[in-house]
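To close the chapter, one final illustration. This time we ask the reader to focus less on the individual chains and more on the assembly as a whole: which components sit near each other, and how the overall shape emerges from the parts.
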Amino acid sequence: MVFIVSFIFIFQEKIMLYCFGAIHMVVKEHISVEEVADLLKKIIRVRSVGRDETKVAEIIIEVLEREGIETYRLIESAKGRGNLIIDINGKRGEGYNLMIVGHSDVVPVEGKWSVDPWGGVERNGYIYGRGAIDDKGQVAAMVYLAILLHRLNNDFRGKVRLLIAADEEIQDPNHGVRFLVRNHPEIFKDIDGAIGELGGKVVFMGEERQLVIFGEKGALSLRIRIYGDKGHASNVYGVRNAVEGLARSLTRLPKEKFFISKPVKEMFSNLMGLKKIFLTNRLLNKISIALVGRKDLRTARMLHAITHITIAKTVLRAGQAENVYPEYAEAILDIRYFPENYEKQLLDFIRKHIPSNYKYELTTLRNTPSTYSSLLTRLYAAIEKTIHDLGLKPLPLIQTGTSDSAWIRKLGIPVYNFMYTEQPLEVERIHGTDERIRKEELINIVEGYYRLIMNLQRL
Ligand SMILES: [Zn+2]
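The assembled structure is written out below.
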């Protein structure tokens, strides 16, 4: 009996190895890492900081047309602010319609780099440049996924739609995915599920895992303006000073509020079973995070962020002249919250901390909703299988930053941020200096997506 069982086990292992190798070879035979890297270098050279996304799209279109792919649309929200949509239709007929979302804009360059951040430089097996990871590396891989499917004669069921969006970093309501959701709902209408930006291998509690982001916190950017008595600074008696009113409001306002959201609770159950009590109980949470923080501040911050509503005070403005009380003083708060927290609730919480004798105004400057997707979907099952096929385990997490996935989840479409990499990405370089990606990862990303599409055929 034992013999038979172990025999089957070995046999299965052989089959798995065979499948692993076969797909790996299919990708390597049809796509070279050099061509993906070449596209990445070219698009890094476009300084698409909140502009010129159309230039990135034009470089991609040239590559697509050379391949004979004409099923694309370029939709601009304003001159130069282009969103590129590429469709690859499977020739085997109807099936799962998968969208993969990336973005062509980047954040500005700051600090001292060892190479030209806009040069698309290759050094020691890495491609350097602003956007190398976030998100032009993924975009280049997405384009070559389309090319791979095309070179393989579109031999699959369903459809793959790539969305290379503008303005992800700024999240202006009039551009990018927000513009498309409002003005071109047809793009999302027939989509069954979507893959959002980034992912990659991570080391979690000493174990290698593949990150799958299934939800994210919301981000509310709020301006708080306190009005006072305008006048000369030689009088203080009976004066409501706007500067003091604001300072008092800000000191009274806590920077955190303990909150365990439903998807976060599910995430903890999934990852640590009963041990989740260490993070979901208010007191134990405080102790556990302090203990973790002594050794590993980054993990402590992450655990804190997913178990608290956070209120960061980021901008302060008041006064012009030294000897005059200003009419008002204002601050901007960056509030990160969960799906259960409504805007009105959050504003009421802020209001409670403003001294009652002051007039004030709260203005929402921007609000990206908090969203999450169920882990019981066909797409998540296919992602899980893909990760297992690659010999790894998934790490489903809620992220504390926002992304375009939120707007697509809002339409009722499940979205997971998943991207296969062989080694952990250097995420600390994202939005920082010397951002870079290992060249070999570009082909791994293509392979991860291709495997996912193949797995969606079977499930
Ligand atoms: Zn990004």
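The chain has two domains: 31-214+373-458, 216-368. Residues 31-214+373-458 form a domain with the Aminopeptidase fold (CATH 3.40.630.10). With these observations in hand, you are ready for the problems at the end of the chapter.
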